[in-house]
Amino acid sequence: MPASKSVKLNTGADMPTVGLGTWKSAPGAVEHAVEFALRNGYTHIDSKAAFVSTPPQAFSLAWIGFSCRCVQERERGRRRHCCVRCSSRLHLFLTTKLDNPDQKEAPEALESSLKNLGTDYLDLCTPQVNDLLRKPDTYMSRAHALARTNDKRTRLHLQTKRTTGLTPGNRWRHCTRVTRISSRRLVSPTSPLSSWSASLAVAEVVPAVNQIEMHPSCPSEDVLEFCRKKGIVVTAYSPLGSDNSPLLTNEIVTKLAEKYNVTPANILISLQANKPGVTVLPKSVTNSRILSNAVIIDLTDEEIKELHKIDETHHFRACHPSWTGWGGLGFPDCK
Length: 335
What we know:
Blueprint: E1 6-8, E2 14-16, E3 20-21, H1 29-39, E4 44-46, H2 55-58, H3 69-75, H4 84-90, E5 93-98, H5 106-117, E6 124-127, H6 130-134, E7 137-138, E8 143-148, E9 153-158, E10 163-164, H7 168-175, E11 187-188, H8 193-202, E12 209-213, H9 221-230, E13 233-237, H10 251-260, H11 264-273, E14 278-281, H12 287-293, H13 301-308, H14 310-313
Parallel strand pairs: 3-4, 4-5, 5-6, 11-12, 12-13, 13-14
Antiparallel strand pairs: 1-2, 7-10, 8-9
Helix pairs in contact: 7-8, 10-11
């Protein structure tokens, strides 16, 4: 089907289809990439504390916050021309994540993220909960941040208590215990369907988004179909496969790129953007690629099927679950 500019979350909020990923972007480069992207039409930025290795990089996105004089003057009732920092944040969908270790000190970690990002609220918060699904002892205390719907802001609360020897489903229920508010935005872990089923069977809150690796060599159709049935949007990371991915030179991909007079990367990004209920996060710090990645082509159903056939002979994962130290996490292709 034709690509859409945004998808509707089960919270009622609109999430832009194409966002800028910032994973492993170097200090100095990532803030330039974010600013350039926002100045050129991007309205969705995906950030994560684990992606930063030094304090300077941790503060690299702060320019998009609410701390500038424009907001201060406006709050005092004075007219002042709004700069790009303020206007961009008002129309920006900003996500961040809590790493497994950070969840033990969730309030401090989340407050640190808000400070480092230079903002007073987040549009989407992703608890990375593979640990919560696997470890025998996991605990997280109360965390809070501002979440936003299309027409108002509400204070989001995550609250869990110490869990010992619980099933994956019970751990997920504790992880997603939320106070009674009108907007809840939580992202589920990248996990096998067996854990998903157990978790959602007892969960009081259905996740809004599930972020997973998805490209022609890792289509994850089973997870995608499961999420659709539950009303969960899927965000595709690593849509190109990886840096210097073989998908960029695949004959099927290059043939379509030539047909539409775009880059192979455009075809791979467009593949995800053409799927109902899917958003996609291409990553780059190069101006030309940031601009190019935002160009989405409407692919035909036949072309999408042709791209999916690549997995039959060239399957791979760019981000293998074994990196977490917990083996394959139940994925059938990671045994």
